Amino acid sequence: MSSRKYSKELVDGPNQAASRSMLRGVGFTSEDFTKPFVGIASTGAKVTPCNMHINQLSEVVEDSINSSGGKGVLFNTITVSDGISMGTQGMKYSLVSREVIADSIETVVGCLGYDGLIAIGGCDKNMPGCLIGMARLNRPSIFIYGGSIKPSDENTDYVTVSEKVGEFSKGSINEDELIHYEKISVEGPGSCGGMYTANTMASAIEALGMSLPGSSSQDAISKSKNIDCINAGAAIMNLLEKDIKPSDIMTREAFDNAITVVIALGGSTNAVLHLLAMAHSIGVDLCLDDFTSIGKKTPVLADLKPFGKHYMSELNANGGIQPLMKTLLDKGLLNGKCMTVTGKTLEDNLKDIKPYEKSEIIKDFDNPIKKDSHLRILYGNLAKDGAVAKITGKEGTSFEGKAKVFNSEEEGVKAILSNEINDGDVIVIRYEGPKGGPGMREMLKPTSAIMGLGLGDKIGFITDGRFSGGTHGFVVGHVSPEAAEGGLIALVEDGDSILIDAEGDQLVLKVDDDEIKRRQSNWKNPNVVPKRGVLAKYAESVKSASLGAITD
Predict the structure, then answer these.
(1) Helix (H) / strand (E) containing 226
(2) Neighbours of 134 (CB within 10 A)
(3) What domain range includes position 246?
């Protein structure tokens, strides 16, 4: 099959002279019209440290494509910042941006006849957005991760600052100390530095086979990240020559590999949402229960933040995720026959990888952080379609307490920072689901305040919204059906007893059926959904979190 399957329709023959004329206007030469066109989707923008360097990386990629015999064509898609918008109404646009990114990549590549695609992402919604766009197009594609930021000289990062707000509220630090941490904790380019959602998704995509080996575990500003971009040109030309497409790589077995690596790394709950959506986009049958079955045989091995001691940059310096993947492969937990963007199998890519020199970050199998998965899929009358918890065991594995109910994140945060939450409470924040938000906001602001107040192992927290990868504590998100759809979470009242059981994987409201029926008969949806604009369109099209909050 021709490696110019799409571009030749755009530029070959006398009838396409006008198209070629436009392309000459942006610098194409006659020779370029004989080469495969490779779109380069850059999420570069100065709105966030995660992406501020990505336009520069995309220029390296462009040069590498051109020097490898292709014609690179740069274009931009959007990014937003969870970290900046966290706790505000602006956060409603975060998950929406995943769909905007996917739609925009599909639109540009589909319109302009690019034969292949390289996408470069930083902030966490970039990555699944890029992969969803790649899957829909199903043309030879590679994802490049923008890389991780390093912690400050005082070993602090963005999540540190979030938790210091809780300490300030408690009176443990003063405002000058809070501002000190604010000033030092985020310096220079790169995505948040723990095993938060960005590094989780980058690692999942490498395990999936859609990025070059090592791409997920490189610092943003590093020689290795530059080499990653330089190598991309020859790699995409190889994929074009061999006609290796995302559907050849993003198989069911590859998704199982990605889930296994996410669990071993102690990754974010958002991986559940995003991997479900990515699988849907490529036509792979993946469901919540697959995370449970894989989790039963996969231990948590990484002592990484938010619940561990170490940052991603420390793991990068110690070999990245490849030695971990090699160990998982040797233990029979990864399928080594899966194809990758190198044009080789995962097994071939890992053949010569040596073990870690130091084992304090990635533990041995006989000394895991947790013997099975920290990502727990809970069911029960409160979550008939499922909920997702991140339980490391450090806070225990079961919690029962009395509900304190809030109909928005803002109400919950106000109560937490006003010291209205007591030991034994289960905070319930609802009407923050995909439709109800709309947009399914992340709850890092309340969970960070809880940790800063020293309540992390003393209270529970459930929501139909979701959690930042920086969250830790006894928390359950993605409760489905959500409140705005009439899910039982909408009927919880202050003082109700709620059981969160991460051993039996149960989320139960301990209220009798007659009382539940009485509440149902009186329930009216208090939620006001926007009537126009992107949030209105999103609320109209988005499906349940239990399906990955897909929109198509």
Answers:
(1) helix 223-242
(2) 30
(3) 7-13+29-149+188-350
Contact call for residues 292 and 286 (beta carbons, < 8 A): no
- Give the pLDDT of the chain (552 residues) as one tens digit per residue: 579 999 999 999 999 999 999 999 999 999 999 999 999 999 999 999 999 999 999 999 999 999 999 999 999 999 999 999 999 999 999 999 999 999 999 999 999 999 999 999 999 999 999 999 999 999 999 999 999 999 999 999 999 999 898 899 889 999 999 999 999 999 999 999 999 999 999 999 999 999 999 999 999 999 999 999 999 999 999 999 999 999 999 999 999 999 999 999 999 999 999 999 999 999 999 999 999 999 999 999 999 999 899 999 999 999 999 999 999 999 999 999 999 999 999 999 999 999 998 889 999 999 999 999 999 999 999 999 999 999 887 777 899 999 999 999 999 999 999 999 999 999 999 999 999 999 999 998 998 888 888 888 899 999 999 998 878 778 999 999 999 999 999 999 999 999 999 999 999 999 999 999 999 999 999 988 899 999 999 999 999 999 999 999
Beta-strand relationship, 475-480 and 37-42: unpaired
Residues 462 and 337 in one domain: no
User: Does 61 share its domain with 77?
Assistant: yes
Look at residue 398 and tell me if it is in a domain.
yes
Alpha carbon distance 392, 170 (integer Å): 25
The domain total for the chain is 3
Point out the catalytic residue in the list 148, 468, 544, 546. Answer: 468
- Domain with 192 in it: what CATH number? 3.40.50.2300
Residue 248 in domain: yes
Judge whether 294 lies within some domain. Answer: yes
In this structure, the answer to whether residues 307 and 403 fall within a common structural domain is no
Q: Are 172 and 239 within one domain?
A: no
- In angstroms, the CA 306 to CA 304 distance is 6
Helical H segments across 26-157, by residue range: 54-67, 82-85, 94-112, 126-137
| This model's pTM is above 0.70 | yes
Is 468 a residue of the active site?
Answer: yes
